[in-house]
Write a structure and sequence with these properties.
The protein has about 130 residues and is mainly α. The protein is built from 6 helices and no strands.
Length: about 130
């Protein structure tokens, strides 16, 4: 997919968010590093795949409900109907509609803090 193909797949809000994240005044494909362009073009970052991942998450919640939370099956089935294609922002916003089981599947917070400075205080990938 060429530069124009990428522009055709990105909505205005996503392009604006990319520009802001890169400290650009406006989205200009010529100012975006090639490595980032390759990741934007990846099928993993398509709206359809954001939708598929959200539908997977919702089906996982339906098929494996928590025993101590309300039943969200009807809510999640409704959300599945509207999530076949989601922008990154829409996928993020949809998580706000999840129920009390929304934290399920994440690693638990360790009982004891074991920080090593400066490694744990630096952005990931800067200090190994």
């Amino acid at each position: 997919m060429g530069a124009q193909g990428l522009l055709d797949k990105l909505d205005e809000e996503t392009m604006d968010n990319i520009a802001k994240a890169l400290w650009l005044r406006e989205f200009n494909i010529d100012e975006i590093p090639d490595e980032l362009l390759r990741s934007f073009k990846s099928e993993n970052n398509s709206n359809e795949n954001f939708g598929k991942r959200m539908q997977y998450l919702l089906r996982e919640r339906i098929n494996n409900p928590d025993s101590f939370t309300p039943n969200y099956k009807n809510v999640y089935e409704t959300l599945i109907k509207y999530s076949s294609s989601l922008s990154p922002h829409q996928a993020y916003a949809m998580t706000l509609f999840l129920g009390m089981d929304s934290s399920k599947g994440y690693k638990t917070i360790p009982g004891k803090a074991d920080f090593i400075f400066p490694q744990n205080d630096a952005p990931h990938g800067i200090i190994n």
